[in-house]
Amino acid sequence: MLLDRISCPADLRRLTPDQLDELSAEIREFIVEVVSTSTSGGHLGSNLGAVELTLALHRVFDSPRDILLWDIGHQAYVHKIVTGRLRGFETLRQADGMSGYPCRAESEHDWVENSHASTIISYAHGLATAQASDQGEGRRVVAVIGDGAMTGGMAYEALNNLGASGSKAIIILNDNGRSYAPTVGRMAETVSRLRVDPRYVRQRAKVEDGLRKVPYVGDHLAWGMHGALAGMREMLEPTAFFESLGVKYTGPIDGHDVVGLEKALRHAVELDEPIVVHVLTDKGKGYGPAEQDDVKRMHDIGAPKPGTYTAAFTEALIKEAENRLEVVAITAAMPDSTGLLPFAEAHPGRMVDVGIAEQHAVTSAAGMAMGGLRPVVALYSTFLSRAFDQANLDVGLHGQPVVFCLDRAGITGDDGPSHHGVLDMVLLSKVPGMTIFAPSSYQEVQQMLHDALEITSGPVAIRWSKTAAPHVDEAEVGSGLTARKVATGTDVCLVGVGKILPACIEAAELLEADGISCTVWDPRVVHPLDPALVVDAASHPVVISGEDGYRDGGVGATLADQVADIALERPAAERPAVRVCGIPTTYLDQGKPDAILSALGLDGPGLAAEARRALGR
């Protein structure tokens, strides 16, 4: 196999066009095999579409001397393979294995550990600015961004500054037609390519210079030619937007033609200014099931399964919307993963997909609420942090009843540090008037969504984990803003937030076996805490709180403060010992969620051990 002979980008430059086609097929087969058989899944569609583009980039540019940047990293598997990481690829997204994204610790070819979209042009602007400075080393800067990421406002902010600075950078717009897809024809393609051909650029400059030398009317003739060319561009090319920002544009170019891609890239290199190279690719190319997936072309492997918290949310939202015509749902380019596609089918016209634009999603939701709608914003927990300012000042400050439904909260596992949802409770608990629910079962999600929609005085958040949701009897479901007492004891009070409740119940069983009497609470509402829970906790010698969010500034810290206030007038020896168990403020690597939680002491044995230490046993 040709693939076995590729250990570094230089190996690609010795291949013929026919060999490149053969290698492309082998790479696709390899990626499909690894991702489809892995227990950790992976991102499939975008990588299958970016094979030829990646080969062309590594044949034209000299990585790591030249700086190749990838937005999100969903397109970077081929980059990893051709930069010496074929061996070990079977450990993709596994604990102590290969990252699913570019990773600086893995390779000198990786510059940005990036998995939050629309950021890469900003990195490119910064790096290009550095290369143009006295500290520059002459490195060329190339950034690849998908059309989906171009729905994010940060990408346009970066383009604006890149164009204003004039810093030399090449931006590859990998357009697979899923979001941003300008309509162009053959003539536009020909003219567009011609305009960045160095021979054409030089010849046009000579013609303009010659016209300017014509006595009396030279400047008018030159401006006339310039205007005519501009008018033709307006009619035939989708360049107006980019060039209004000071950024050249060329394309569209067939993203599966390595030879054509190389030609366009070499032309772009000769320009001493920023340029967008628009490349058309087919997401999921070469793999039938992906090509036939109309929703997301097998963007990733591992969709929501029945019995998950996400499935509970889908079921509940559809039901609530039947009786509340004012309910609408908002997603930021993830209608499938957040469980909103069935809602859109059940209630046509009541779901809004804003693209990768979380800030806009949240402020738009505030406007909808002001207009009498009840917006439900469904986001991954990790992506909410991108819109915290909007949640705080656009929603919270105005007291708008927006409901935030946060999927993948807590430790998510395979996607690594950028995807763990460990900030939401810390951040949202600091928004005045915010109510935060943390369900511990499938049925609690449904009850909490109903209760959230009953609250009209301010915003509400419901956060749940990626894992399967326990199914419980009606007697084990709370309501309103009250906590639920699961068990009653005298020695230790265990408070388990959401997914951590089963660990608290297991810890109580382990402690009871040693003769230690335990109370267990499901707080349900983590902000504000139920006063009854706080008073009861303060009556125990030891209080153990467990949460799958940051320990500092989280739910347990609030509980500890409130318990301390109640016990303040007691003798020091009689005050409860409160142990706050949560996620340390650090970046956690990829791994299975339960294994990570266990390593952090957030399982039954870990919480029981913490209780014994607090009791001095």
UniProtKB/TrEMBL annotation:
Cofactor: how and how many bound: Binds 1 thiamine pyrophosphate per subunit. Binds 1 Mg(2+) ion per subunit.
Chain sites annotated for binding Mg(2+): D147, N176
Catalytic activity: D-glyceraldehyde 3-phosphate + pyruvate + H(+) = 1-deoxy-D-xylulose 5-phosphate + CO2
Keyword Magnesium annotated: yes
Gene Ontology molecular functions: 1-deoxy-D-xylulose-5-phosphate synthase activity; magnesium ion binding; thiamine pyrophosphate binding
Every Transketolase-like pyrimidine-binding domain range: 307-471
Cofactor names: thiamine diphosphate; Mg(2+)
InterPro entries noted in UniProt: Dxylulose-5-P_synthase, THDP-binding, Transketo_C/PFOR_II, Transketolase-like_Pyr-bd, Transketolase_C
Pathway connected to this protein: Metabolic intermediate biosynthesis; 1-deoxy-D-xylulose 5-phosphate biosynthesis; 1-deoxy-D-xylulose 5-phosphate from D-glyceraldehyde 3-phosphate and pyruvate: step 1/1
Any one cellular-component term (Gene Ontology): cytosol
Transmembrane segments: none
EC main group: transferase
SUPFAM superfamilies: Thiamin diphosphate-binding fold (THDP-binding), TK C-terminal domain-like
Domain of life of the native organism: Bacteria
PANTHER family, alphabetized: 1-D-DEOXYXYLULOSE 5-PHOSPHATE SYNTHASE-RELATED (PTHR43322), 1-DEOXY-D-XYLULOSE-5-PHOSPHATE SYNTHASE, CHLOROPLASTIC (PTHR43322:SF5)
Name this polypeptide is given: 1-deoxy-D-xylulose-5-phosphate synthase
